[in-house]
Hints:
By secondary structure, the protein is an alpha/beta fold. The protein has helices at residues 2-34, 91-103, 180-200, 227-236, and strands at residues 41-44, 64-67, 75-78, 86-89, 110-112, 124-135, 145-156, 159-169. Residues 1-9 and 14-38 have low confidence and may be disordered.
Amino acid sequence: MMHWARKLGRSARSTLAWLEMRTFDAAYFAFLFAIGCAPSHAAHVSSATLAPPPVDMVHHSGRLWIALDEYTKDRQCIAADGKRPVCFVGVHAALERALTATLWPGFSQVRVKGKGDEIQGGDYLLLVSAVLEAEGPAKAGPGWGTRGLMSFRLVRGGIPILSEQAESRSRSDLPYGAELGASAGEVLDALSVHLATRVGTLPEDTPVPGVPLPAVVVTERRSLQLPLSRRVADAQQSPSER
């Protein structure tokens, strides 16, 4: 009887220890999920090589500073329909590439504002908030895609000049997971081109007067053939023609 009692006691202690471990594991993973470290799909956001929008942009006299840190999360995680979370990674870098590539013709300088940068009189400050969401199969396609929401405000001298909200949806033909980084880049690019069109065509209140320059006279004009094109032309000739 004592033997069975000891075995029962050991079994009970073992069961209790197992339950405590499972409880600890559940609490541990809940903690990881809460701080954003749960196992997830890393969707690296990629931005395309963009050109400025096909509009006549106004040249503004002040520099343009883009503020992202306080308004847009660089890593954005969401969980859809009980699936593992998808984390869009590199949102800041993708936005910086897209916005600088599309806004540069309209301003003397376009830079992302850092902690040590100071806004001077006449400079523009662009506050940009962007949020990415994964969207499941719908009318847009049989797979998954990304929805992007952007709000921005342009400020100069502490006075708001323009404020707007917009959204864009990508195609829905991707599998759920890391591949959504490509569609996230598409919607950020589309929103950036829209933003550049709106901001870049605003009138300039204090244009910089043009500096008179001396005239330039062309004294000689020649059609020069580049060495590379000459080598290509020679390669296309037959040996008898050389």
